[in-house]
Write a structure and sequence with these properties.
Chain lengths: 278, 541
Amino acid sequence: MKTLWKNLKEMPLSARIGLAIVVVNLLGGALAPLVAPYGENFIAGDFWEPASSRFLLGTDQLGRDMLSRLLYGARNTISVALITTFLAFSSGMILGSLAVVKGGWVDQIFSRVVDVLMAFPTLILALIVISVMGTNTYVLVLTIALIAFTRVFRLSRALAMDVEVMEFVEAARLRGEGSTWIIAREIIPNIIPPLIAEFGLRFCFVFLFISSLSFLGLGLQPPTADWGSMVRENADAISYGYLIPLFPAAAIAILTVGVNLVVDHLLNKAAGNVHGDM
Amino acid sequence: MNDIILDIKDIEVEAGNVGEKQITIVDKVDLTLRKGEVIGLIGESGAGKSTLGLTVMGYCRPGCRITSGSIQFRGHDLMNASPKEMRELRGVKIAYVAQSAAASFNPAHKLIEQFVEGPHQHGIMTARDAGKKCIDLYGKLKMPQPEVIAYRFPHQVSGGQLQRSMVAMAMACNPDIIIFDEPTTALDVTTQIEVLATIKDVIRQFGMAGVYITHDLAVVAQVADRIKVMRYGKEVEEDTTENIINHPSQDYTRELLASRSLVRDRQVDNIEDDILLSVEHVSAGYKRGEKILNDVSVTVKKAQTVAVVGESGSGKSTLARVITGLLPAWEGNIIFDHKRRDPDIKQRYRSTLKRMQMIYQMPDTALNPTQKIETILGRPLTFYLNMKGAARRKRVEELLDMIELPKNYINRYPNQLSGGEKQRICIARSIAAEPELVICDEVTSALDQIVAAGILRLLQKLQNELKLSYLFITHDLDTVKAVADEVVVMLNGRVVESGLKDDIIHHPQHEYTKRLLDSVPLMDPTWLDKRLASRVELIAD
């Protein structure tokens, strides 16, 4: 706890701002049922009402309170993005290390499959899979996780290759350790710091990707509140001079910037560690 | 005394970021240099000798600052010189020769192009004249076929030739002072002698002054007129080479001198005639058709130390990989305790692996930085001996005791230890398995002399206590003299000579062994001259 506080005090201003944004978003999402003035799908007023004391950010195309929708949207979009990123990372990290430790044909199979997957434009790949498998949340999560996995796999593999040539890994081999120990105890702990930074970055991409899919109507399905689909649903309002669609768009932008500020800080720290006292 | 060309007084260099705690790297040191004189700066890593060497140019590395003192060079005050004045001095009047020539040359340009660049940029010579001077200097530095070598790329010449062409580059503008920063440390002994001879020759011929930085007293004794011993950024003592070698006044200097003359201390009655490891006619390599090892045979008896000596590329580390099975042998047998063992580590039993352990050259990369000492030492205990919980912890503490480290190190991470302590942990990890054979791959090369001597003493102590056999791979003949019972000399993947240590050292049979032994500098300032007089052909490479 003490070190956490110390880290916080040593953070540059930009990282602190980023962290504040992330924390506010997480809290907002987690506490949505408690803090939101209206329910997720409660039609509280007329459509596209301007901001007022009753509706702090106005209402959407069906007359639902925009602030409440944003809070619930944070809950849905962020949790789906987190689960997806987490899936991509755990599988990418383990399989990337496994490819390095096993080498030979194991490495070849994994790497070539990943190459093939990466050869498709991501959005088109996602559109094909989702339109074939149907638009439910599980398919969405697994599809995006698969796409993010390919990137994490390549990065983990590259990092693990640097660690694998170290003598402490050879010492473990010499001892007769199996792949599980070598991956879990010798390699993964040493590739975690740069991967944490990548986690933040990848989270942003996944988050934006879900929003893009929702915008296209293939992401989280209505009436679930989701920032991407909220932009689309209210897009027409812009022609009438209403600001409504800009709120979910701004929420996406602000959270992305916030996460990136934190990630930048982590990246700097990871880079510093390489040159400093290891 | 008008011939003083450089006068550094009370120089102080600090490092550290602004606002953080400052570390003093060089602490109030004086340095004077007369025309034609060479001063040797000696000390272990972190002694501040390189930093002091660089201040001669009025320069310090990024992150460091010269905080006080004065540097006078022939009427120039280098502390307050303008960037323009500095540019005119550096590389022209004061030149620098770095440790690793391979890293200092641009691989994309020919040697002569890189030579010409300096004098041409400074407007001292035309490119044409500089080119002529290059070939001329290469000739004076006794490079074979100067006009051919000059037009080669850096990767096309040998390490020794590259280091010599760097010396030539430093001399391009006829400087008053050349700073040599460990110019022979990265070279094999037989190459080192050539470069040393070149440097000595150059200084004598051209009458320039030099600052020679090294950690090796025997090397500096060959070239320096005076020696300054440094430790922790401070001067320990300064005297003529003769006095430092024969009558050192400080304990630290005495310790440095003593660390080179370690003797084998062992109970002779321990030696049994029973053979533990026998490598029979082994050939192996990494690529098909490219044999790194060629028909190599080595035997190690129980409780005996066999040293495998050779220069870089002789295949000695590959031999270790073949014995352990990391690199399966193509031909030949590996017989351990009278049984033939599978050439591939994956096919060997855990009980076989337990009996054969290894210690590496770089303790920094041989320990996982994310594991505590308890895990590092405890894992082999659990893995081989099925020890767990309190018993395991107790045994780890015992191991720490055996390697002369405090018990509370159990909760530390490797980056909280010094290089020597890390190497001790590596030793503990290998003996934790209770092995019979320990393969030591250049275990002292990355350490300072005094620390290295401590490690060698520890290995001997453990050998006496645990009746271990060592296969000791090294390029350093002093280490061989200190630890070995038998010696195997390797060259280009073959064993050229093997036998009892005293026979090999005093009566070498093979030409190469003789040359190797002849190239090791002795603690005698006249050694190089004598050597050169007796073996002129050496310099011709």
